[in-house]
Amino acid sequence: MLLTLLACGVPDFSIDGKVDGHAFPSVGTAFYGGPYVLFAPEELECMDVAWVERNYREGEAPTELDVTVLQVTFLSSDVEDGYYSVEGEAPLSAKLLSIADGALTQYRADAGTVEVEAFEWEDILSGTLDLTFDEGSFKSSWYAEWCLNLEE
User: Fold this and answer.
1) What is the per-residue pLDDT for 10?
2) Is residue 7 situated within a structural domain?
3) Looking at the DSSP assignment, which residues form a beta bridge with residue 115?
């Protein structure tokens, strides 16, 4: 079933919660590659996310797209399976990026966990997340498809 859903290109899950009014009632994009796992409510192609980086300048949009993205970034060069906290000197970080009209607003998760449960197939990653931000929270069981444009 999972393979069939991904073959259609649109994930079939949601991320519960809201952060400063931003929500993911359905996920249109779920990709991973290099050190990143990326979710967006909009449907994006792999080539549309080549702008993803480890760090962004507040206020400066890294892309011309108007998009909201939940980005998990590992300190290592690749996503690694395991159970991780985002608190303190964690091996990963999680940010909500809101990009609109050429401007970027970032929200960083300051508590919570991300679990990468399995590489179910060669190009599919799955896991859970439970993240708390000053402005709200997100929780989900998820899966993501490999995207070459997220490799560093």
Assistant:
1) 65
2) no
3) 83, 128
